[in-house]
Amino acid sequence: MTTLAELQRNFIRDCLSGKHKNTNVLLAKDIDTSHISASGLLGIYQGSSIGNIIQAMKLTYPVIEKLVGEDFFRACCKEFISAHWPKSANMDDYGEEFADFLADFEPAKPLIYLKDVAQLEWLFHLSSLASDSSPTDWTHLSTVKADDALQVKFLLAPFVQLISSSFPIDIIWEMNQPNSTVNKEIDLTHNIDKQTLLIVFRSGLKTEIMTVTEWEFALLSSFNHQQSLAIAIETIAKIESGISIDDVIKKFIELNIISSFKVE
Known about the structure:
Elements: H1 4-15, H2 38-60, H3 62-68, H4 70-83, H5 98-104, H6 114-129, E1 152-156, E2 161-165, H7 169-175, E3 196-203, E4 206-211, H8 214-224, H9 229-237, H10 246-254, E5 258-263
Helix pairs in contact: 2-4, 3-4, 5-6, 6-7, 8-9
Protein backbone atom coordinates (compact mmCIF):
# COMPACT_ATOMS: atom_id res chain seq x y z
CA MET A 1 0.00 0.00 0.00
CA THR A 2 1.32 3.43 -0.94
CA THR A 3 2.22 5.52 2.09
CA LEU A 4 1.01 9.09 2.57
CA ALA A 5 4.54 10.42 2.07
CA GLU A 6 4.83 8.51 -1.22
CA LEU A 7 1.45 9.81 -2.36
CA GLN A 8 2.52 13.37 -1.65
CA ARG A 9 5.86 12.96 -3.45
CA ASN A 10 4.19 11.34 -6.45
CA PHE A 11 1.57 14.08 -6.62
CA ILE A 12 4.27 16.77 -6.69
CA ARG A 13 6.25 14.90 -9.35
CA ASP A 14 3.14 14.40 -11.49
CA CYS A 15 2.29 18.10 -11.27
CA LEU A 16 5.82 19.08 -12.26
CA SER A 17 6.72 16.36 -14.76
CA GLY A 18 5.99 17.89 -18.15
CA LYS A 19 3.49 16.47 -20.62
CA HIS A 20 1.39 13.66 -19.18
CA LYS A 21 0.68 10.27 -20.67
CA ASN A 22 -1.32 7.60 -18.89
CA THR A 23 1.88 5.54 -18.71
CA ASN A 24 3.96 8.16 -16.86
CA VAL A 25 1.52 9.26 -14.15
CA LEU A 26 2.94 7.99 -10.86
CA LEU A 27 -0.41 8.27 -9.09
CA ALA A 28 -2.25 6.24 -11.73
CA LYS A 29 -2.56 3.12 -9.56
CA ASP A 30 -3.77 5.10 -6.54
CA ILE A 31 -6.58 7.20 -8.05
CA ASP A 32 -10.02 6.46 -9.47
CA THR A 33 -9.77 6.58 -13.28
CA SER A 34 -13.25 5.20 -13.98
CA HIS A 35 -14.56 8.61 -15.11
CA ILE A 36 -11.41 10.44 -16.26
CA SER A 37 -7.96 9.21 -17.23
CA ALA A 38 -5.01 9.58 -14.90
CA SER A 39 -3.32 12.01 -17.32
CA GLY A 40 -6.54 14.02 -17.65
CA LEU A 41 -7.05 14.24 -13.91
CA LEU A 42 -3.45 15.17 -13.09
CA GLY A 43 -3.46 17.57 -16.03
CA ILE A 44 -6.03 19.66 -14.16
CA TYR A 45 -3.70 20.00 -11.18
CA GLN A 46 -0.71 20.54 -13.43
CA GLY A 47 -2.50 23.36 -15.26
CA SER A 48 -3.26 25.01 -11.93
CA SER A 49 0.37 24.61 -10.83
CA ILE A 50 1.66 26.17 -14.05
CA GLY A 51 -0.77 29.06 -13.64
CA ASN A 52 0.54 29.73 -10.13
CA ILE A 53 4.15 29.60 -11.32
CA ILE A 54 3.39 32.04 -14.14
CA GLN A 55 1.80 34.39 -11.62
CA ALA A 56 5.02 34.28 -9.57
CA MET A 57 7.05 35.06 -12.70
CA LYS A 58 4.80 38.02 -13.47
CA LEU A 59 5.80 39.48 -10.10
CA THR A 60 9.51 38.94 -10.79
CA TYR A 61 9.49 40.06 -14.45
CA PRO A 62 6.81 42.78 -14.80
CA VAL A 63 8.86 44.81 -17.30
CA ILE A 64 9.41 41.80 -19.56
CA GLU A 65 5.67 41.13 -19.50
CA LYS A 66 4.95 44.75 -20.40
CA LEU A 67 7.49 44.71 -23.24
CA VAL A 68 6.19 41.56 -24.92
CA GLY A 69 2.52 41.62 -23.89
CA GLU A 70 0.56 39.31 -21.59
CA ASP A 71 -0.19 36.55 -24.11
CA PHE A 72 3.39 36.32 -25.38
CA PHE A 73 4.70 36.38 -21.82
CA ARG A 74 2.45 33.48 -20.80
CA ALA A 75 3.60 31.49 -23.82
CA CYS A 76 7.25 32.20 -22.93
CA CYS A 77 6.66 31.15 -19.34
CA LYS A 78 4.98 27.87 -20.31
CA GLU A 79 7.95 26.93 -22.48
CA PHE A 80 10.36 28.02 -19.76
CA ILE A 81 8.55 26.07 -17.04
CA SER A 82 8.56 22.91 -19.17
CA ALA A 83 12.36 23.11 -19.36
CA HIS A 84 12.96 24.43 -15.83
CA TRP A 85 10.57 22.94 -13.31
CA PRO A 86 10.81 24.48 -9.81
CA LYS A 87 13.24 22.75 -7.48
CA SER A 88 11.91 24.57 -4.41
CA ALA A 89 8.48 25.30 -3.01
CA ASN A 90 9.63 28.90 -2.49
CA MET A 91 8.82 30.79 -5.70
CA ASP A 92 11.19 33.57 -4.65
CA ASP A 93 13.96 31.17 -5.70
CA TYR A 94 12.49 30.55 -9.14
CA GLY A 95 13.29 32.13 -12.49
CA GLU A 96 17.04 32.79 -12.48
CA GLU A 97 17.52 31.07 -15.87
CA PHE A 98 14.76 33.10 -17.58
CA ALA A 99 17.16 35.66 -19.09
CA ASP A 100 19.23 32.97 -20.83
CA PHE A 101 16.03 31.24 -21.93
CA LEU A 102 14.75 34.43 -23.59
CA ALA A 103 18.02 34.80 -25.51
CA ASP A 104 17.52 31.33 -27.03
CA PHE A 105 13.72 31.43 -27.39
CA GLU A 106 13.23 31.67 -31.15
CA PRO A 107 10.11 33.93 -31.18
CA ALA A 108 11.89 36.41 -28.87
CA LYS A 109 15.26 36.52 -30.65
CA PRO A 110 14.50 39.73 -32.60
CA LEU A 111 14.19 41.53 -29.24
CA ILE A 112 17.90 41.25 -28.52
CA TYR A 113 17.74 43.50 -25.45
CA LEU A 114 15.29 41.25 -23.56
CA LYS A 115 18.01 39.12 -21.97
CA ASP A 116 19.70 42.13 -20.34
CA VAL A 117 16.38 43.59 -19.16
CA ALA A 118 15.48 40.21 -17.62
CA GLN A 119 18.88 40.06 -15.91
CA LEU A 120 18.24 43.49 -14.44
CA GLU A 121 14.83 42.41 -13.18
CA TRP A 122 16.29 39.27 -11.58
CA LEU A 123 18.96 41.32 -9.78
CA PHE A 124 16.25 43.79 -8.69
CA HIS A 125 14.32 40.80 -7.32
CA LEU A 126 17.40 39.48 -5.47
CA SER A 127 18.20 42.89 -4.04
CA SER A 128 14.64 43.29 -2.77
CA LEU A 129 14.84 39.97 -0.91
CA ALA A 130 18.40 40.17 0.40
CA SER A 131 19.31 40.63 4.05
CA ASP A 132 20.05 44.04 5.52
CA SER A 133 23.65 44.92 6.32
CA SER A 134 24.79 44.98 9.92
CA PRO A 135 25.51 48.43 11.41
CA THR A 136 29.16 49.55 11.15
CA ASP A 137 30.93 52.00 13.44
CA TRP A 138 32.81 54.03 10.84
CA THR A 139 34.78 55.90 13.50
CA HIS A 140 36.96 52.78 13.70
CA LEU A 141 38.19 53.56 10.17
CA SER A 142 40.12 56.53 11.57
CA THR A 143 42.08 54.20 13.82
CA VAL A 144 43.59 52.28 10.89
CA LYS A 145 47.33 52.88 10.76
CA ALA A 146 48.64 54.90 7.81
CA ASP A 147 50.75 51.93 6.66
CA ASP A 148 47.62 49.75 6.56
CA ALA A 149 45.27 52.26 4.91
CA LEU A 150 45.71 50.93 1.38
CA GLN A 151 45.04 47.38 2.61
CA VAL A 152 41.55 48.28 3.76
CA LYS A 153 38.86 46.22 2.04
CA PHE A 154 35.52 47.97 1.70
CA LEU A 155 32.58 45.57 1.61
CA LEU A 156 29.31 46.03 -0.24
CA ALA A 157 25.95 45.52 1.44
CA PRO A 158 24.29 42.10 0.88
CA PHE A 159 21.59 43.67 -1.26
CA VAL A 160 23.95 45.39 -3.73
CA GLN A 161 24.00 44.04 -7.28
CA LEU A 162 26.07 45.27 -10.24
CA ILE A 163 25.13 44.92 -13.90
CA SER A 164 26.47 46.24 -17.20
CA SER A 165 24.76 46.18 -20.58
CA SER A 166 25.34 47.39 -24.11
CA PHE A 167 21.67 48.46 -24.19
CA PRO A 168 20.03 51.36 -22.29
CA ILE A 169 18.28 48.96 -19.92
CA ASP A 170 17.95 51.62 -17.22
CA ILE A 171 15.80 53.76 -19.52
CA ILE A 172 13.83 50.72 -20.75
CA TRP A 173 13.18 49.74 -17.15
CA GLU A 174 12.15 53.27 -16.13
CA MET A 175 9.85 53.74 -19.14
CA ASN A 176 7.94 50.59 -18.20
CA GLN A 177 7.33 51.37 -14.54
CA PRO A 178 3.76 52.10 -13.37
CA ASN A 179 2.85 55.77 -13.87
CA SER A 180 6.17 56.47 -15.60
CA THR A 181 6.43 59.87 -17.28
CA VAL A 182 9.64 58.98 -19.15
CA ASN A 183 9.08 59.24 -22.90
CA LYS A 184 12.16 59.40 -25.07
CA GLU A 185 13.71 57.94 -28.18
CA ILE A 186 16.20 55.20 -27.31
CA ASP A 187 18.72 53.33 -29.42
CA LEU A 188 18.16 49.59 -29.11
CA THR A 189 21.04 48.52 -31.33
CA HIS A 190 23.83 46.49 -29.74
CA ASN A 191 26.63 48.93 -28.85
CA ILE A 192 29.61 47.37 -27.05
CA ASP A 193 31.36 50.75 -26.98
CA LYS A 194 28.59 52.39 -24.96
CA GLN A 195 27.96 50.46 -21.76
CA THR A 196 25.14 51.11 -19.33
CA LEU A 197 26.57 50.58 -15.84
CA LEU A 198 24.13 50.14 -12.98
CA ILE A 199 23.99 49.51 -9.24
CA VAL A 200 20.90 47.88 -7.80
CA PHE A 201 20.54 48.52 -4.08
CA ARG A 202 18.06 49.22 -1.31
CA SER A 203 17.38 52.58 0.23
CA GLY A 204 15.27 51.93 3.28
CA LEU A 205 12.49 49.63 2.10
CA LYS A 206 12.74 50.74 -1.52
CA THR A 207 14.92 49.03 -4.11
CA GLU A 208 16.71 51.51 -6.36
CA ILE A 209 18.62 51.46 -9.65
CA MET A 210 21.48 53.94 -10.06
CA THR A 211 23.52 54.67 -13.19
CA VAL A 212 27.23 55.17 -12.46
CA THR A 213 30.39 56.07 -14.36
CA GLU A 214 32.84 53.49 -15.70
CA TRP A 215 35.37 54.14 -12.94
CA GLU A 216 32.72 54.11 -10.19
CA PHE A 217 31.54 50.74 -11.52
CA ALA A 218 35.13 49.47 -11.58
CA LEU A 219 35.66 50.67 -8.01
CA LEU A 220 32.58 48.88 -6.71
CA SER A 221 33.42 45.77 -8.74
CA SER A 222 36.82 45.68 -7.04
CA PHE A 223 35.17 45.99 -3.63
CA ASN A 224 32.63 43.34 -4.64
CA HIS A 225 35.54 40.96 -5.26
CA GLN A 226 36.94 41.93 -1.83
CA GLN A 227 40.03 43.53 -3.31
CA SER A 228 42.04 46.02 -1.28
CA LEU A 229 41.80 49.78 -1.69
CA ALA A 230 45.26 49.73 -3.29
CA ILE A 231 44.14 47.35 -6.03
CA ALA A 232 40.91 49.32 -6.54
CA ILE A 233 42.89 52.52 -7.04
CA GLU A 234 45.18 50.79 -9.53
CA THR A 235 42.15 49.50 -11.42
CA ILE A 236 40.41 52.84 -11.79
CA ALA A 237 43.68 54.64 -12.63
CA LYS A 238 43.76 52.58 -15.84
CA ILE A 239 40.36 54.01 -16.74
CA GLU A 240 40.76 57.64 -15.68
CA SER A 241 43.79 59.23 -14.06
CA GLY A 242 43.94 61.88 -11.38
CA ILE A 243 40.77 60.80 -9.58
CA SER A 244 40.28 61.34 -5.87
CA ILE A 245 37.97 58.60 -4.69
CA ASP A 246 37.41 59.86 -1.14
CA ASP A 247 34.16 61.71 -1.96
CA VAL A 248 32.80 58.79 -3.97
CA ILE A 249 33.52 56.28 -1.21
CA LYS A 250 31.83 58.65 1.24
CA LYS A 251 28.78 58.88 -1.05
CA PHE A 252 28.50 55.10 -1.33
CA ILE A 253 28.87 54.74 2.45
CA GLU A 254 26.07 57.28 3.01
CA LEU A 255 23.88 55.34 0.57
CA ASN A 256 24.76 52.12 2.46
CA ILE A 257 26.07 50.62 -0.77
CA ILE A 258 29.40 50.23 1.01
CA SER A 259 28.33 48.80 4.34
CA SER A 260 31.52 47.83 6.17
CA PHE A 261 35.29 47.36 5.93
CA LYS A 262 38.06 45.11 7.12
CA VAL A 263 41.86 45.22 7.27
CA GLU A 264 43.89 42.11 6.59
